[in-house]
Fold this sequence. Notes:
about 200 residues; Purple Acid Phosphatase, chain A, domain 2
Amino acid sequence: MYRLQPDIESSDIVVIAGDIGPLKWYTRWKTYKGAIARINKPVLAVHGNWDGIKIQQFLAPYSIHAGFAIVDDIGFFGVGGSIKTPLHTPVEYTEDEIYSFLYSGFEHIKNQPIKVLISHNPPKNVCDKTIFKTHAGSTAIAEFCIHNNIDLCICGHIHEAHGVEQLHNTKVVNAGTFKSGYYASILVAPNGVEATIKRL
């Protein structure tokens, strides 16, 4: 994470889209915990499906899961965890639960000129193709983005599906996994969203 310091310092906001990982990966967790705590920019986060209660507690000061934040007229809202998976990972929700979490935060930012969703799970059929060529995105997230004219969805979960795609009017950015060196640089402006996937 230290190699990312120049990009962090030139950014306005740092977003963490989940999957810091279970505490059994202690060395990596300890490194990330220290690096995140030293970021002197606003940090917005949601937990991933691998992020159990201890990691959720650490992320609590930054978390907008089922919540929101407004920064410079940009409304952010979020949902952590994932839809049900065959692996039965620690934090999974039904599609109905995900929709409820989305609505809870969105109600507070729906009148902002720019609306950004931070979601661990990608929307269905967008940045969500697994190594088995199946689509593991959330239908609730996809429909919510379309029906509410969300400008940007920042997601993760399907680590091999890193990229930038379009879902109707929503720019979808899956930054991939940071342990493999991937991250995203995103510019949000009144005239649109620009995003690039980078690798250290």
